[in-house]
Amino acid sequence: MHDFNFSLIFPDETTQKNSDRGITKPMITKEVLEQLELTELVELKNSDLTDYFTTDPAVIEYRLQNFEDMMEIPEIEEVLLSIIPILQDVLELRRLDTETGATTESYLYSITEVELYISCIERLSAGFSKIDHKIKSPAFRYFSDRIKELSESDYYKELNQKLKELTDRVRDIKSITIGVNLDAQLRPADAGVLSVNSQYFKSGDIIDKILRLNFKEDEYTCIAPLVPFSRGQSENQKMAQSFAFNSAINEVFKTSIRSWKKIVQYYVLENTDFLLRIMPEIEFMVQCTRLMRRLREVGCPLTRPVVMPMEDCACDFRGLYNPSVALKIDDEIVQNDIVFDDQGRIYVLTGPNRGGKSVITCAIGLAQAMVQLGMYVPAAHAQISPVDGIYTHFPSGNEDTIDKGRLGEECARMGLIFDRVTRHSLVLLDESFSSTGSYEASYIAFEVLLGFAKVGCRTLFSTHLHELAASLDDLNNQSAAAGGVRVDSLVAGIESGRRSFKVTRAIPDGKSYARDIAEKYGLSRDQIEEKISDRAET
Q1: Hey, what domains does the chain have and what are their CATH numbers?
Q2: Could you report the per-residue pLDDT of 124-175, keeping only the tens digit for each?
Q3: Rounded-to-integer distance, Cα 301 and Cα 69, Å
Q4: What's the predicted TM-score (pTM) here?
């Protein structure tokens, strides 16, 4: 078979090498994924989610086809998961084998590994043979064909036969006969194994002598124990005795060990390595599929993204929602249209407290991340270019405020983003610079947005700073003069006095949000006058 380069997540060796070298791997850190809550949605035990991001449209397309098969054919997941415990046992055997070296114990480990390997192939063959006619994706089509080819090969059948013969031989060994030469003083001079036997020797107790009249002719009855095994011996004596026996047995099996190891290394190791290498990929594919299936089960739309070249900087979401929120609420999920284009490559998002600003900010990051994992997108439509990095500037619970102060810490983190960001990046800012007064925060935010506008990266700035949104004309004039992109305004609105969680392109009305907050806490003019009048009457 020799499919060393087969992968469920890379279509060929070149794309995998490009990822390994970092050429097509975007800057998306574990911290960013935690802030977006993607690590809660896709939990991996055997690898890191950051290992699977890509900027390569060909890789994304390859994975989309695989996910489509897994969504439509649930049996694929069942078959793949059934071999995971077996492969984990193989890994443990290899670890033990490394520790033992070329011994009889190692020989037995190898036999067990072959048994496990054959069990893997049998499960895969039985599972994929039932669904082979449904498979469409190149990866699973190839995988199914190769498993079928392997399970029907003459060598595989021969391997099964050799394994049966070997296991029968090994399981038939019950005892060994030891011979000891004595010198003139009846002291042991030489000792060695005389034979390997298929039955246990008998104890030679007095009851055996009474019951067996032909005792003298019974070569499997012990006349006297060689050593009172484990009785009255020191640890050193026990170790020495065990070492002597093991060395003798290893010598007996030396030839068998060498010949069997060659078979294992020539054929089995090469093929199990292929299965072992895709084990983390199987977990990744399964967990992502489970997330998408859960979203469909609660009635949320998923769409196959139209992946555009990175140079296009395209981003058009219709009916976008936050999957993390969708799986936590019983109400119908709110969907929004978000388009980054020449009229607005950067957005300032304002709105009432708890009006959905943070939710939509994370939704954009989650959708972008899911595209670059090769997944379907939580939206009704998505046309999007990959980004070379996702950068977040969210409120942090671990600020280095002792030396810098909270505002200093926020500025330091923002500076790190500017060290790396390019026009192909996505930047998400949530209530940045909220640690200082409105005047200072607006000034810093203005400078930051102007910097991102000059870079030209996609940016969403969710903020309570309505003064910032009101200064967009000045910001755009300065950006245009510097050759930067345009900044626009988004508003998380209120309908009929209630938060709608709908986001629209509009100029914010700061007073309406202040009025909303005042009413929430009973501090509108009418509410205050009512409180006062009630108290006056009493």
Answers
A1: 13-171+263-286 (no CATH), 302-507 (3.40.50.300)
A2: 999 999 999 999 999 999 999 988 988 888 877 777 777 776 666 666 667 7
A3: 18
A4: 0.79
